[in-house]
Design brief:
Elements lengths: L8 H21 L13 E5 L5 E4 L10 H10 L13 H13 L5 E6 L4 H9 L15 E5 L5 H11 L3 E5 L4 E5 L4 E2 L1
Parallel strand pairs: 1-3, 5-7
Antiparallel strand pairs: 1-2, 3-4, 4-6, 5-6
Helix pairs in contact: 3-5
Length: 186
């Protein structure tokens, strides 16, 4: 058992203090621990395939997600090949917002790839583009991005420092991949 039954009043207060402290710290220790950061700052995005732009604050100052803004982001980040819309994982958006903030904030972020339909992913595989069979793009959990004016190597390093998920570095294709999967790099 994790805790033994308190034998004295002092033990009871120690356990109560520990449990209360743990409960108060838990939100800061979770994946969404960045509620104190300026998530209400807007993201400025350009879908490089469709030419569409969106500047949107997808979170309220209290950290709550704005469903209308998330829907607008789902539309912008749809599969450009099939026009299929799929929900984008808010943790992936949080990762992107944190990355923008890490680099000074307010950047015009170019989206190379976001959600990919199974049909488009299969097409890319058949052309030998090196895409994963079970890519997180298929789940709306990955973004391929670049930020004009920010060196790609700096973008990669900033993403790695955040330690939020996967980071792929593609200098020949001029983008960095981020995702809300396990922390890893390639």
């Amino acid at each position: 058992m994790f805790f033994s039954v308190p034998r004295s009043r002092r033990d009871f207060f120690k356990i109560s203090f520990f449990a209360t402290t743990l409960a108060l710290l838990r939100p800061r220790l979770s994946w969404g621990r960045s509620a104190s950061l300026a998530f209400s700052a807007p993201l400025s995005l350009l879908n490089t395939h469709t030419g569409e732009r969106l500047k949107v604050a997808y979170r309220a100052p209290d950290g709550a997600y704005d469903p209308t803004a998330l829907s607008d982001l789902d539309h912008l980040l749809r599969c450009h090949h099939t026009n299929e819309i799929h929900p984008i994982d808010p943790r992936t958006l949080d990762y992107l917002a944190l990355l923008d903030q890490q680099l000074g904030g307010g950047h015009d972020i170019h989206i190379i790839s976001a959600y990919r339909s199974p049909r488009y992913n299969a097409l890319l595989q058949s052309k030998g583009r090196g895409v994963a069979h079970k890519s997180l793009h298929l789940q709306g959990r990955a973004l391929d991005v670049r930020i004009p004016g920010v060196q790609l190597a700096r973008l990669k390093e900033a993403a790695l420092l955040l330690g939020r998920g996967g980071v792929g570095y593609y200098p020949r294709s001029d983008f960095v991949h981020i995702d809300s999967g396990p922390v890893r790099r390639w």
